[in-house]
Design brief:
Length: 285
């Protein structure tokens, strides 16, 4: 029998480079989510530290066995957390990471693979790139974590789905761009919502997308966190531009029904994809 669980999207407004203040935001959001019957709480990208860290990255980096994550592991004893933080590796590289903590244990860590370096973004200057897209097993079914820009690259969702993921967890720090008075959301929000729905439909997969709000260095973040079910139907939506904790129930049996009705993933020819990618990789530059 497929798991059923309640997920809360913690759309918070982190303070830049202020980990103690952000831990308090986490604890407040967890209390609210607990009151909504949550089994799992998902926080935005880099929500323990804020996003525009620049040279503060090294100051707020946390080793996986460090005290801040230790405090969060304790917080996860009665409900699971997906946390966004700066990970300091043993070789002193720093990663934009997201971890699933559950029942006091670290279940999985994903290091952001695609670090944007266009427009306002300069992540590749401060962070090392992750090198793996992998699904993992949990009491919430098989899932994969992709951090913000990762999900703008279709190959990541493709690999995650082929690796057996039923749910995509996507912590995000997406800024507002193309704001218009005549529309409720900005252009960036509309594009994200299109991508989330497309992945859900194409792969028969749940998409749990959690974006932050607030301002840093004059840049605003649009919020609008949401859950899409395996048919692309929106299950819950957080408000734009405002802090909120919103919850919904997820029944993973819906993915089974969707994949039986539309067996696109079943029919995927992995060997063909590998052969063609090897051919493309071997082409002269």
């Amino acid at each position: 029998m497929e798991p059923r669980f309640t997920v809360s999207l913690a759309q918070i407004k982190p303070r830049l480079a202020d980990v103690p203040a952000n831990l308090e935001l986490y604890e407040r959001a967890v209390r609210e989510a607990r009151g909504q019957g949550a089994d799992l709480v998902v926080f935005p990208e880099l929500s323990l530290t804020g996003y525009h860290l620049k040279d503060e990255v090294q100051a707020v980096g946390e080793k996986l066995d460090g005290p801040v994550l230790g405090r969060l592991r304790e917080l996860s004893r009665d409900l699971a957390l997906v946390v966004g933080f700066v990970e300091e590796a043993s070789d002193y590289r720093f990663f934009n990471s997201a971890a699933l903590l559950d029942r006091g244990e670290m279940v999985h860590v994903h290091r952001k693979v695609y670090l944007p370096t266009y427009g306002m973004f300069d992540e590749n200057r401060y962070f090392a790139r992750g090198g793996r897209i992998a699904a993992f097993d949990s009491r919430f079914g098989r899932a994969a974590t992709l951090v913000c820009e990762d999900l703008w690259h279709p190959s990541t969702a493709h690999v995650a789905a082929l690796d057996g993921a039923i749910t995509l967890l996507c912590p995000s720090s997406s800024p507002a761009r193309g704001v218009r008075e005549s529309t409720e959301q900005d252009d960036n929000a509309r594009t994200w919502e299109l991508l989330n729905r497309a992945y859900a439909v194409a792969y028969g997969i749940f998409v749990i997308y959690v974006n932050r709000v607030g301002f840093e260095d004059g840049v605003g973040f649009w919020g609008g966190s949401e859950v899409l079910d395996a048919s692309g139907r929106r299950v819950v939506k957080a408000p734009y531009y405002e802090e909120a904790v919103v919850s919904c129930e997820i029944d993973l049996a819906a993915a089974r029904r969707q994949r039986i009705m539309s067996p696109l993933l079943r029919d995927e020819d992995v060997d063909l994809t590998i052969r063609e990618l090897q051919r493309i990789q071997g082409k002269p530059q």
